[in-house]
Design brief:
By secondary structure, this protein is α/β, with parallel strands linked by helices. It has 18 helices and 13 strands. Strands 3-2-1-4-5-6-7 form a seven-stranded parallel β-sheet, sandwiched between helices. Strands 10-9-8-11-12-13 form a six-stranded parallel β-sheet, with helices on both faces. It is globular. The chain starts with a helix and ends in a 5-residue tail after the last helix.
Length: about 500
């Protein structure tokens, strides 16, 4: 008994003798790390002074950099980017806007021209483009497993490349790469802002894994295995914790909808600097389309406007449309045409379009479905002006610029019963309905049939009310709320 006690005392003394050197060594390593990071910060600041020249008035311009690796794409996020830049150029004279982009297949002039062609946005001053070589590090295809973590870590390396090429005064992440925020804040010494279109991870995603629901981001082989589901749930909780830490580095946080606000407040816990800034929708351009009572037509158009990404769920649109045709719900009514309009960012998106075309062939609706990819703005307006129904199927869409555009153009909108469309857009206005919501293949087919069965006068009433409701999503309203939100960054 005594011998056992002596052994235990000896073990404790040994651990204590090892603990003190370990703590000392850890302290030295922490000090070295802090000194290294401080040295990198000083070096970057010196590099910034060397690379930045004074303006015509002798003052160095304020560099405001937007991190948007896919700025030449044609989605709603890109419209936010170009409207934000135009707004800052109109408000502040001594500001130079910088865009970090990986679109090396286009020149700066071509990118700006593309923004005007797609979104009808004309900038008042030149923009400086910093072209990044390592954009492949944030491509989802590079990480078949642990995609969220892989892309997030990849964005840190891409952000480091961006920081080495240009150290801004104000850094705004406009595409959702939150893991770059601490990099620019603590090493770049920048004031930090971000515009969150969609949280990288959300409480809804945690619920999907917890409930073992099969989705595009939760494969069947995981949902069918309790062990895999538990492991993925732990992984998601860990990622959500780290995501909250990096997001809280922001000085200004803008979110695009009530749905996104709820999730960001839950994850980042930075309510004092978080505000809703609805994305700019070019509603006036669409409102200029004459809204008249429908005349007799040989064809009803159903139009979808969204990028060809998996979460947009274009297969649901095609299946619901095929169901509508198959069940002959319309009897002898005019023929139907489904028009899918969207942007393709890369080879994965193009392959997705090819898969959708094959799905149309399998369902026998190829002759009734048209794909229009990366089309000019004027052609988009023409399709919306001629359409009867605007279609949207993304589950938990963060906002839904395409939904707003369809409503402003005068279509009767049918959107998914979740996210931004449910909470912010397709809501009653002055006590009257502005559109319809659905959730699955059957409800979409039934609601489309119901809309087409309404009298032209009733559809016109819904279209007029929807138009009146979209003014709160105008460019002007975005400019006002955006400037109010980013004002602390310029003080």
């Amino acid at each position: 008994m005594v011998a056992g006690g002596l052994c235990l005392c000896g073990l404790i003394r040994l651990l204590c003798s090892l603990l003190i050197p370990a703590l000392f060594l850890s302290g030295i390593l922490c000090v070295c790390l802090v000194v290294l990071l401080w040295g990198i910060r000083l070096w970057l600041q010196q590099r910034k002074k060397q690379l930045t020249s004074a303006g015509k008035d002798g003052k160095r311009p304020l560099l405001v950099a937007f991190f948007h690796p896919y700025c030449n794409a044609g989605g709603g996020g890109e419209r936010v980017l170009w409207c934000a830049i135009r707004t800052l150029q109109k408000k502040y004279r001594n500001v130079t806007c910088v865009v970090y982009t990986g679109d090396r297949d286009a020149t700066g002039e071509e990118i700006v021209e593309g923004a005007f062609r797609r979104f009808n946005i004309k900038l008042t001053h030149p923009v400086k483009f910093v072209f990044l070589e390592k954009r492949y590090l944030v491509e989802a295809s590079l990480y078949p497993h642990f995609t969220l973590l892989g892309q997030s870590l990849g964005s840190v390396f891409l952000g480091w490349e961006a920081l080495l090429k240009c150290v801004p005064d104000i850094y705004i992440d406009s595409m959702g790469y939150a893991f770059t925020l601490p990099l620019f804040k603590y090493l770049g010494g920048c004031r930090i802002g971000c515009y969150v279109h969609y949280p990288t991870i959300s409480t809804d995603m945690l619920s999907v894994v917890r409930n073992q629901d099969t989705r595009f981001n939760n494969a069947a082989f995981i949902t069918n295995n309790p062990l895999f589901s538990k492991f993925k749930l732990v992984y998601y909780y860990f990622f959500a914790f780290v995501y909250g830490l990096v997001g809280s580095c922001s000085d200004v946080i803008m979110v695009n909808s009530s749905w996104t606000l709820n999730h960001i407040l839950s994850l980042w816990r930075a309510g004092a600097c978080t505000s809703v800034v609805y994305p700019p929708c070019d509603v006036q351009t669409f409102l200029d389309i004459p809204l008249e009572e429908e005349k007799s037509t040989a064809e009803h158009g159903i139009v979808s406007v969204s990028q060809f990404r998996p979460e947009k769920d274009h297969p649901l649109q095609i299946r619901a449309f095929a169901k509508l045709l198959k069940e002959k719900r319309l009897g002898q009514q005019p023929s139907l045409k489904l028009i899918l309009i969207g942007g393709c960012r890369n080879e994965q998106d193009e392959e997705r379009v090819n898969n959708l075309k094959r799905l149309c062939e399998e369902l026998g609706v190829s002759n009734n479905v048209m794909f229009r990819i990366n089309i000019p703005f004027e052609e988009l307006k023409r399709h919306l002006a001629e359409a009867t129904i605007g279609l949207h199927t993304m589950w938990n869409e963060h906002f839904g610029i395409g939904v707003v555009e369809c409503m402003a153009a005068g279509t009767v909108i049918l959107a998914h019963n979740s996210g931004g469309p449910k909470l912010d857009i397709v809501v009653p206005y002055e006590g009257r309905i502005t559109g319809f919501l659905a959730e699955n293949e059957d409800s979409y087919a039934e609601t489309m049939a119901y809309i087409l069965s309404l009298s032209p006068e009733k559809r016109l009433e819904i279209r007029e009310n929807a138009r009146r409701s979209v003014h709160r999503f105008s460019d002007q309203h975005f400019e006002e709320t955006f400037l109010l939100s980013v004002e602390p960054l310029f003080k």
